[in-house]
Amino acid sequence: MKKFLVTLLSLIFLGTGINAAHAEIITLPCIGGTYSVEMPASRITKSNGCTGNLVIDPSIKSIGDTAFQWAKITSVTIPNSVTSIGNSAFSNSTLTSVVIPSSVISLGRSAFESSEIRSVVISGTLTEISDSAFGWTKNLTSAVIPSGVTKIGNFAFWYSGLVSVEIPRSVTSIGNSAFSSTKLTKVDIPDSVDTIGYGAFNSISNLTAIIYCGPAASGLPTTPTCPSDRKAIIDAKNKAAADKAAADKAAADAKAAADKAAADAKAAADRAAIQAAQDAKKLTISCKKGNTTRRVTGESPVCPKGFTNSLDKHLTFQAFSKCKLYKKDSSIGGVSLLDNGATLKFSSAGKYSSFLASAGSYVDVACSLLVMKAPSFVTAQIDSTRALDGLQKATWGRLSAFWTYHPDNGLNISINSN
Asked: Is the pTM of this model over 0.90?
């Protein structure tokens, strides 16, 4: 009979010239009538009077939404070609038993709700028992949920006749009212379950024992019993997890400390290299004797006997050389010798010198004033200058100094040799 139906279906295809891009409805026989199939999807769309024992053709790939809703069938044989059962596919039918083959990977909402189902074998490839899938199945007294299912949906078995249920350790979530108003007397919830929805086991008058050691006990109507052996396993896992977390944190802290130490060492080495580079810088001066010129390079260089440096007449140059300010050549916060050696300029002295070896410091300013023989009243005036004082001026001998100070900008001072 099955081979005949397959052959008949093939002939129908050839005879009608169905285009895969356009759906067409065909009918296949069943006891008491026929059922409609949408092609080329091979999806059953509705029952046309099917009764008794329903054998679904092996060419069918899916059973559509409400396909056998209210049908007067008592049993159904679902072939391994079927991969999905739609919403309310068998709801309110007179179906009493069903084997959902392992080919089925999708079970729609309310698929068997309010049916007369007494026994069910659930596909081992399903990962979810959908919402209301077996709700209001008053004759269903037991169910074995296959390993692989991770979620039991909202109202999945509510108001069913369940007296017992086996929940595998693969399940992590049980939905709202999933088993409420059933006839369960005892339930063993695996400790893998970390979410139990509102009222999942409520309104069960015969329920005398709940066994559970997991973290979602607050969702249960009564305090569960946790067997000592399972508690010991969980405690050991929790301790191992805590130990691992502590070890991971210690390792992370150690790595962070090592990384910081390495970064600090590198920064210190970089600063030292920069400081060394600055310290290595030398000053070059031009020394003349008649028509002869010699260039002399060094730390605070001096012309050979009989030669003169035209810049030596400026105390500003002498300060630049003796205080080694030529090493303070940063583009920010540096020191400049201008006007052919007649002007010594500090920009933002003291602001950047703590981290820039090439920036001028307050020590550099003090050294310069000492070389330039600044009287104590000048140094005292500079030391006491506030931001609100604005531009300040002082003169001594042939030198004039102009400066401003602000805590955010440091000391800006120019000293001119007349």
From this structure: no
